[in-house]
């Protein structure tokens, strides 16, 4: 399927399924089903920084006129492999004859080389054949990324003292997760020995909470961990706004200023330690006491637990002017917006500006928290959910 826009024929989409390989095969053979794609949506990430990064989702509508995507249709070209838990990936390529390379203005947190750029990689949850008026046959394919698998896996193993990323990698490898699918920046937070049991996702979230960083699945399907200090070193790479030299959003961004994310008294308790509490009297005087509690974490000292508490207090003790999302249509400014839509990932730092009819210009630096694409005939809209908290 080639996405063609008026005056812009440079975007090529590719959708592939590894029909014959197991879910955790590190080098599967993919079959191209792009010609049958009618539309798709993807979403990864979270709405704001106080949420968990959710399981990434994709929904694809396929032309099923030939019956190739009907489960148990033995005459179908993909029989008998139209089953759940097949690897699926969506990618795209934008080419304007070398005028730029994807990633030219993207920092190391989101650098993507020119070529096929991943949009979503995950696993088929289900194939749902549909018939309209008895003639138009389609199949709705639902997909989830690796976070769903982590929640389904159980773990029962012991792990010695380590730091966050090596501890996460060791846990993932014990689950059978391919080593090539583990990326991330070295976490500086040390962890004590522990023996998790139950959901692997719960055990991974405990490590994530101990550091305060972000664990997620990238567009290429790899596990990525950004330690808590990762965003401190990022710089703004692009600006969305009203001015002529800024990238234009498709819909006016909505701003908020409320008490939804105020926590001015924070307590952190590590296993084997004592509760470390820090609070801000000025914030408590203005907004009342608002408590945030973290417990059973894996720090190796009370000092490290207190550092996390202080970081959380500094982040949340005062309300922030908030912009929740930015949406745009890449085809309206192809040379600038396609690299943004295809090349950016979670934690990218952007600026959002708004010039109101009266009053001061709103100018907020934000971090990318989630990415959604809605794609169909003559349609491609991208939405970034963002947060200004570092």
Shape: globular
- Distance between the amino and carboxyl termini: 39 Å
Largest sheet: number of strands, sense, barrel closure: 13 strands, mixed
Strand content: 35-45%
CATH topology heading of the largest domain: Thrombin, subunit H
Summed over residues and divided by their number, the pLDDT gives a mean of 89
Structural class: alpha+beta
Q: What's the count of strands? A: 24
The number of helices is: 6
Element pattern in H and E:
EEEEEEEEHEEHEEHEEEEEEHEHEEHEEE
Low-confidence runs: 97-114
User: Quick one: CATH superfamily of the largest domain?
Assistant: Trypsin-like serine proteases
**Fraction of residues in helix:** 10-25%
Oligomer: single chain
**Name of the level-1 CATH class of the largest domain:** Mainly Beta
CATH architecture of the largest domain: Beta Barrel
Query: How many domains comprise the coordinates?
Result: 3
Radius of gyration over all CA atoms, rounded: 23 Å
